Amino acid sequence: MESALTARDRVGVQDFVLLENYNSEATFIENLRRRFRENLIYTYIGSVLVSVNPYKELEIYSKQQMERYRGVSFYEISPHIYAISDNTYRAMRTERRDQCILISGESGAGKTEASKKILLYFAVTCPTNDHMVTLGDRLLQSNPVLEAFGNAKTLRNDNSSRFGKYMDIQFDFKGATMGGHILNYLLEKSRVVHQNHGERNFHIFYQLLDGGDDDLLNTLNLERNPHSYRYLVKGSCARVSSVSDKNNWRVVRKALDVIGFTAEEVQKLLNIVASVLHLGNTLFGEGEEGETYITTETQLSNAAKLLGVDGSALKEALTHKKLTAKGEEMISPLNFEQAVSARDALAKAVYGRTFNWLVEKINQSLALKEEIYHSSKDASVIGLLDIYGFEVLQHNSFEQFCINYCNEKLQQLFIELTLRSEQEEYETEGIAWETVQYFDNKIICDLIEEKHKGIISILDEECLRPGETCDISFLEKLEDTVGGHPHFITHKLANGKTRRVMSREEFRLLHYAGEVNYNVNGFLDKNNDLLNRNLKEVMCQSENQILSHCFRREEVIDQKRPEMAASQFKNSLMKLMEILMSKEPSYIRCIKPNDAKQPGRFDEVLVRHQVKYLGLMENLRVRRAGFAYRRRFEAFLQRYKPLCPETWPNWNGKLADGVSALVNHLGYKPEEYKLGRSKIFIRFPKTLFATEDALEAKKPEIAVTLQKSWRGYRERANYQRIRHAVIVIQSGWRGMKARRRAKRRREAAQLIRRFIKGFICRHEEYCDDNDYFLDHVRCYFLKHLKKTLPRSVLDKSWPTPPALLVEASEHLQMLHMRNMVIKYCRRVQPEWKKQMMQKVVASEIFKDQKGSYPHSVGRLFLDTRLEREQVSLKVLQTLGSEKVQYGVAVIKYDRRGFKPRPRQLLLTNSFAVLVDRTKIKQRLDYAALRGISVSSLCDGMVVLHMPWEDNKQKGDAVLHCSHVIELVTKLAMMASKTNYVNINPGCIRFGVSRTKEGIIDFVRGSELKVSKGKRGHLLVTAPQISTT
Record keywords: DNA repair included (predicted)? Predict the structure, then answer.
């Protein structure tokens, strides 16, 4: 906390105890303003937390923030509600003593939100198991349920708690939540039937109408419009822009399920809520003789049905009352005003008792489970009191009187406990206790609660007094009984100046926080809080289990008058005081910065009003009566030891001697401080501020020293680390090299042994002795093969494989050749593929049989040997649809006389023709072709054998062609007669006529010559063609 003192001029001090002028209210409020402007909403007064409502979301409640404050000393970091929560929790764990947190403040100051934050902190940070998670959920979910039934929109707050709440959270020895219990105080039942202008009834009514589904509303006979119900329109504020009743309804329904309400219980509960609305719409009329009757039978019938009572009995009870005189019962009719009062009293009683049942039901779900925890002796408790703050309204009535009486008691408790804790700390540390001057409000508490003489006793007496009593008679009795009290004033007892601001129906109490005027109208009725006996009898017979639990038959049988409301509140408050006195308290004081609920706006008048009513200045004066600052020796010495050469950098002696040396060096005067047994006490904030300023001025020098020392240490450590690393690396590297070398030698020796053994056993079957050698031979062959694979399909070379790979080598060679052929074929263009196919056929026909074949291999076969213009157009027209696929010039020799005649041979897809200029001389059908004959020499003679039976074919054709290999190949392929080609080495026979054959003789010579030979044969002299 001390680290923030250097910025105190901008953001103020974190603890009001450190204010120099602590008696100045203006200084106090200015410190609040500075911190509020910087969004620092929390400030300490010693161990008391002051919280200012920011009216906006701040990023200070995350889980990370919870962890930041968890287990940290109270004053180590900035003020926060989590610091109070954690300090309370740790005190409970370490001291094994029950704790409580008291939250107070005006409506709208953030009390309810503060209690939610505390519950959430415990739920998140405490140890858990499955049961504890469920219990934590129920603790958290009890808030929206109680808010729905106990909170309302007021002029000052859209979610104002209209009841006081004290919650006990039980923890086991491990610090985990194991149970809980809630006490409620003084529910503002009058709000059920009446609201001031600009205010609303309790939230649950609007949530039910806005969020309930149509079926539910039909079951309850309700309409969605809240203006239809008289109990909801008196404040003229049925809707609130900042409140979503529909969303809140969903939250409440979910919370009821989590807490453990059954569907039947929820329905019964909603029946009661709806019945209150129907009661409010039940109207009365007055007859001529003054008798009262009900004018809205439907509304009364709906209310009776939902309450589970007989309609006629309820009607009778609302218009008549039962009196007992001298042991006899009499029925007396009610006048109009009495009937309305009876109706309103019933609505308030039903709602108030249902609220008590609701709290009781929640307590059952939070109760300690004995089957899980067999003993609660080790259980510790943290109490959480969320109760109304001091209220001063324009019109103050019975409720404000009870609320302010409660705050008087809490202030009395606070002063007492604060002084006691201060005194105990002084005695523990061995420092003389100095008497503290403060205002003791016991005189005011006695004025209100003293037996037989206090205001509450007088009010009860007036309610019980026979005869005509009224609020004015109560005021007169107060004047007679306590009129001389210095803190009590009425219009009659006041001076002239005071009378001008007080009405005759008011009395004034001088509270510890200021003066408050109370109007006595309604005091007696609200204190009586009585329900007609016959109404009680009707409600006791209810079929609604909740109401039958709330209205006991013993009430009707018991003739004893029930306790008055003020006395009930006083007794419950006394029990609360006993509970709080048995615990170690912590305090949170909540402040509302403005009435408009605007963020960033600080209304100084309003804040001063709350500072006064919360008694914060009185609190500060008590805390500052002795010493403003105290710290344990070790914390003080640890922070300020750089300011003294004797204690810097380390103090090795006793802590008290070190602190003494430090304060002597700093020049503390004896009246400025005291040394206790474990703490130093500093009286004036200026002494601490001077010490903190000196530390701030010293920090640059300390920083330089620390930097110098750190850099030297860092470099030395870095050098040692590097040197050690180098040595480790060197030794490791040398060892690794030696191990590698030894391993390589060992592996090499094993390898050589295996290789030699394998070579010796290489001819044996594959076994452990020769597997390595044989694998090596295989591997070597395959690697060598990879480098020497043939690159061309014409390359027939192949490495010689070892004996064990012969078969595999053959497969590989075949696969490789096939792969090369496939690759080659994929690269061949269509025209080259055609050429290759013709060359393959030519090879199959003529290879090694025809002398001119080798000479033709390197020459391409052409698509035709004739130009287009060389073929007669008339011939093409005669051919019609048959396209000429190939044409070549030939010499035809007559079969008789062998006269040469130049012709053109044209090949189509189905036949060939011999053409003489423009005339087709002979047609040769492929189907009729019997054979093709050529010689084995280097001549161009070819004989096409045709059948004599077909006159159209005209017999065999003897031709000479310069491109005989090309012609025969194409003709054989087109006619599909490759097997019909005959290659004759000496002569060729051909048919001259049906009965006569001709012969062509072939001889070798120097040049090509065709002539008529002996015996009428055709003689062909063929030259020898060189193949080089």
Answer: no
732 is catalytic: no
For residue 369, CA distances in Å to 364, 380, 556 come to: 10, 15, 35
Which residue ranges are tagged as binding site for ATP?
105-112
User: For this structure, is 391 an active site residue?
Assistant: yes
CATH code, 845-984: 2.30.29.30
The yes-or-no answer on residue 199 being catalytic is no
Sign of the Cα pseudo-torsion (631, 637, 642, 647, in order):
positive
Cβ–Cβ under 8 Å, residues 545 and 515: no
Which tokens go with 255? 């919370």
The kind and range of the H/E element at 659 are helix 655-666
Cβ atoms of 668 and 640 closer than 8 Å: no
From the list 51, 161, 404, 490, the catalytic residue is 161
Residue 1007 or 95, more confident: 1007
Query: Beta partners for 51?
Result: 42, 590
**What would the mean pLDDT of 213-238 be, rounded to a whole number?**
88
Gap between the Cα atoms of 161 and 185, Å rounded: 11
* Start-end of CATH 3.30.70.1590 domains in the chain: 629-738
Query: What tens digit of pLDDT does each residue of 859-879 get?
Result: 888 989 998 888 888 888 888
Residue 799: pLDDT over 50: yes
17: which residues sit within 8 A by CB, 6+ positions away?
Answer: 44, 45, 46, 620, 623, 624, 628, 629, 685
Per-residue HEC secondary structure of 326-378 comes to: CCEEEEEECCHHHHHHHHHHHHHHHHHHHHHHHHHHHHHHHCCCCCCCCCCCC
Residues belonging to the binding site are 105-112
Peptide bond into 685 cis (omega under 30): no
What gap in Å lies between CA 180 and CA 182, rounded to an integer?
A: 7
Kind of pairing, strands 981-984 and 987-991? unpaired
Encoded tokens for 993: 């006529």
pLDDT range class, residue 711, cuts 50, 70, 90: very high
Measure the CA–CA gap between 134 and 176, rounded to whole angstroms. Answer: 12
Whether 160 is catalytic: yes
Q: What radius of gyration, in Å, describes the C-alpha atoms of the chain?
A: 60
Which of 113, 199, 391, 408 is labelled catalytic? 391
pLDDT at 834 over 80: yes
* Residue range(s) occupied by CATH 1.20.58.530 in the chain: 401-520
From residue 479, how far is each of 196, 455, 472, 489, 505 by CA, in Å?
30, 10, 11, 8, 12
Active-site residue, 457 included: no
Q: How much of the chain exceeds pLDDT 70, in percent?
A: 93
Catalytic residue among 53, 125, 154, 160: 160
Among the options 53, 88, 104, 112, which is catalytic? Answer: 112
For 757, residues 6+ apart whose C-beta sits below 8 A from its C-beta are 769, 770, 773
What mean pLDDT is predicted for residues 93-113? 83
The domain defined by 629-738 folds into Alpha-Beta Plaits (3.30.70)
Measured N-to-C along each axis, helices 565-581 and 398-429 cross at an angle, to the nearest 10 degrees, of 20
Tokens for 524, please give them: 């007696």
Contact assessment for residue 1002 and residue 1022, using Cβ atoms and an 8 Å cutoff? yes
pLDDT attached to residue 357? 92
What does the alpha-carbon distance between residue 163 and residue 974 come to, in Å, rounded to a whole number?
116
Kindly indicate whether the domain formed by 401-520 is annotated with CATH number 1.20.58.530.
yes
Are the beta carbons of 639 and 680 closer than 8 angstroms? no
Q: Examine the pLDDT at 366 and tell me if it is beyond 70.
A: yes
Specify whether 107 is catalytic.
Answer: yes
For Cα atoms 544, 549, 554, give the angle at the middle one, nearest 5 degrees.
120
**Least confident segment among 728-737, 891-900, 924-933:** 891-900
Sort residue 375 into left (φ over 0), alpha (ψ -120 to 50) or beta: beta
User: For this structure, is 157 an active site residue?
Assistant: yes
